[in-house]
Amino acid sequence: MKSDNFPSSLDLWVNKGEVLAVVGQSGAGKSLLAHALLGVLPKNAHVSGQLIFKGRNLTLTDMNRLRGREIALIPQSMTYLNPLLKVGVQIARAAELSGVSPKASRRATMEALRRYRLAEETASWFPFQLSGGMARRILTATATIGGADLILADEPTNGLDKDTAGETLMHLRGLADTGKAVLLITHDIEAALSIADRVTVFCGGVTVEEALAGDFNGSGRLRHPYSRALWDALPGRGFVGSLPARAPISANGGCPFITLCQQFTSPCESLLPDLKSLNKGRVRCHHA
């Protein structure tokens, strides 16, 4: 998959019953991936490669049909809720769009509210009456009421306090434990590791590493220098790493991390290696 700004180097998969965290800095291409899966890329985007869902290649027609039904998005902001409609109406509308009959949609809405520990009276509230945690639960209920098998969670903890963020993540873990496939898109690696089974690291629109969540434990299991720098730059690691505010992008089709990598050699500048298997993960690096 590529756009005008990103090379065609995104490569990942997510299985049912697991949480795959996609991590990286701002500008790495994480949300672009979600938009591609939903078929809502901007008109100037150029897509190549394959998007496979349940064993079949997805066309734009398929995406339009599956969006909100079998592939659902939990967006990162409560601004996605219509401020002029009661939340119960919005959840019921999502149920109807997913194929639930209008008659059954109210019952489904009440069940969704109970599932996420919200009082039935919440259905009559407007979005401005919700706390941050309640809004997250409403967004999750809206996205999952149709029984989607693939859940895309785009920065679901952004702007939340620690307790609310933890609650939100546990809801996602619970969805995976019921057999859903959950793609968690986030810049918060430490939070993602609390629920993720695997982690895919994006750098400048490129998948540079795929690792088990347990590889992020400080014992040197990470395979790519960008992954190690990203991990070391976190508060919990004492900020021992240093990275720019936005993910670097390769200008010559090589590794996007070359300007900051101490292992840089001339092939890194112009030749992007394939992802190769290494230590129960995958890495895209000439020196791994």
Structure report:
Helix content is 30%, strand content 15%. It has 288 residues and is α/β, with parallel strands linked by helices. The chain has a domain at 1-37 and 150-288: Rossmann fold, CATH 3.40.50.300. A hairpin with a 2-residue loop joins strand 9 and strand 10 (281-283). Helix 3 (87-97) packs across helix 4 and helix 4 (102-115) crosses helix 5.
CATH superfamily of one domain: P-loop containing nucleotide triphosphate hydrolases
Main beta sheet:
8 strands, mixed
In CATH terms, what is the fold-level topology of one domain? Rossmann fold
The span between the termini is 24 Å
Helix content: 25-40%
- Tally of alpha and pi helices: 9
CATH architecture of one domain: 3-Layer(aba) Sandwich
Q: What's the rounded overall pLDDT mean?
A: 87
Strand content: 5-15%
Structure summary:
With 288 residues, the protein is α/β, with parallel strands linked by helices.
Topology:
Elements lengths: L18 E5 L6 H9 L13 E2 L2 E2 L2 H7 L4 E4 L12 H11 L4 H14 L16 H13 L5 E5 L7 H16 L3 E6 L2 H4 L5 E6 L2 E7 L12 H8 L33 H5 L5 E3 L2 E3 L5
Parallel strand pairs: 1-6, 1-7, 4-5, 5-6
Antiparallel strand pairs: 2-3, 7-8, 8-10, 9-10
Helix pairs in contact: 3-4, 3-5, 4-5, 5-6
Features:
Rossmann fold; 10 strands; 9 helices; disordered N terminus; globular; 288 residues
